[in-house]
Design goal:
Blueprint: E1 14-18, E2 25-26, E3 29-30, H1 34-48, E4 52-56, H2 74-84, E5 89-90, E6 99-101, H3 116-123, E7 128-131, H4 142-150, E8 156-158, H5 160-174, E9 180-184, H6 189-199, E10 205-208, H7 212-219, H8 234-246, E11 250-252, E12 256-260, E13 269-273, E14 281-285, H9 287-298, E15 302-306, H10 319-333, E16 337-340, H11 344-351, E17 360-361, H12 365-372, H13 378-381
Parallel strand pairs: 1-4, 1-7, 4-6, 5-6, 7-8, 9-10, 9-15, 10-11, 15-16, 16-17
Antiparallel strand pairs: 2-3, 12-13, 12-14
Helix pairs in contact: 1-2, 3-4, 6-8, 6-12, 7-8, 9-10
């Protein structure tokens, strides 16, 4: 286990804390402040014990050529001040301020390039380094790797959010109670191939949904009409099917599909079984598959979910994802441990108002997926171990 921020003395010291405040903003307003809210325990821990904070985060995708107003951290500073009910100083470091939020790290190309000179400047701003940015933990950027390297000899600890994420995701795979069911969906099979490979033999069942299912179905000789297929990954999908057959894991695919000729609300739809007609594309798992997946999930004791079952943002292609989400919530109520990866899966849980019914919802889609792949993070490895 890594040493955490609440285990170090912060009184009279400044903590340089990497947070993940990459929140959605429209017209200058934050539309979802969950990532800010999730960082509050670590922030409050420092403030309550007499420490000062310099917070650093990225936001959006600036060019790395200097200040861009649409990617400014100003809305974040305003919201953070509201949540903490105290002043937050935005911009350059201010030794007199209890809380400083630096401007967007990615305004400087040195952040993504892991530039040591840029990192050294950041490292000079704190007495203690704290990584509480699970959503960026899989990225070897300056603030995640080069800054703690430059602060060797000073405490380098995990934030409470990061520690919590690592505990849940590591525990889910290494110490899961069976039956252990993984639900993997989304668009590209290439995004989930390594996760499937790592989970084979470790989980009892993997339920596949989303557009990624169609590459596997083609590899298995099925006709999928105009459904999205990664043609360059068909051979890899075939090898994965063979590996699954040789493993103890049951790999399940959709038996039927909600199909349409275009992705639009109100467009004509049909349920296709076995073969999807030419010109039609599968956009959600069908009723029979929904029932099979629901039954499987209700018997589970540990569930990991990463990726929707269909185009859940548009009706009527949201039903499969909703049924799976509801089944996971019901299984959780019956005592199962449920862990939902960030990104679209977390968005679906929120859209269906099931957040309070899930054991753990990750703040990082990409990071949680890499943990399912069995990969370790350089940014975490560099932190101090607990005594």
């Amino acid at each position: 286990m890594k040493q955490t921020i609440d285990q170090v003395d912060v009184a009279g010291k400044r903590v340089l804390m990497r947070v993940d405040f990459n929140v959605p903003i429209q017209n200058g307003e934050i539309t979802d402040d969950r990532r800010i809210q999730m960082a509050l325990p670590s922030i409050q821990s420092v403030l309550d014990r007499g420490g000062k904070l310099t917070l650093m985060s990225h936001l959006g995708r600036p060019k790395g050529e200097g200040f861009e107003s649409q990617c400014s951290m100003q809305p974040v500073a305003t919201r953070l001040a509201e949540l903490l009910q105290r002043q937050v100083h935005l911009g350059d470091d201010d030794a007199s301020a209890d809380i400083v939020l630096l401007e967007n790290l990615r305004f400087d190309a040195g952040e993504k390039n892991c530039d040591r000179t840029f990192a050294k400047k950041l490292a000079s701003l704190g007495d203690i380094y704290c990584n509480d940015a699970f959503g960026a933990a899989h990225r070897s950027h300056a603030s995640m790797v080069a800054v703690p390297e430059a602060m060797e000899g000073k405490p380098r600890v995990a934030g409470l959010l990061l520690a919590n994420e690592l505990q849940y995701l590591d525990h889910a795979i290494q110490h899961a109670e069976t039956p252990f069911v993984a639900v993997l969906g989304g668009v590209k099979v290439s995004d989930k191939m390594n996760a499937i490979k790592n989970l084979l033999g470790k989980v009892d069942t993997i339920l596949i949904g989303g557009a990624m299912a169609y590459t596997f179905l083609v590899a298995d000789g099925k006709e999928v009409g105009a459904s999205l297929v990664e043609r360059d990954r068909i051979h890899d999908a075939r090898l994965m099917l063979d590996a699954a057959t040789a493993s103890s894991t049951n790999l399940l695919f959709p038996h039927d599909h909600i199909c349409a000729q275009q992705i639009a609300s109100g467009t004509p739809v049909q349920v296709a079984t076995k073969t999807i007609p030419d010109g039609w594309m599968g956009l959600d798992i069908g009723p029979e598959t929904q029932a099979i997946y629901t039954d499987t999930l209700l018997q589970a004791r540990t569930i990991v979910w990463n990726g929707p079952m269909g185009v859940f943002e548009i009706q009527p292609f949201d039903v499969g994802t909703k049924r799976v989400a509801q089944a996971i919530a019901k299984a959780t109520a019956n005592g199962a441990v449920s862990i939902v990866g960030g990104g679209d899966s977390a968005a679906a849980i929120s859209a269906f108002d099931l957040e309070s019914q899930i054991t753990h919802i990750s703040t990082g889609g990409g990071a949680s997926l890499q943990m399912l792949e069995g990969r370790s993070f350089e940014s975490v490895g560099i932190l101090d171990n607990a005594l």
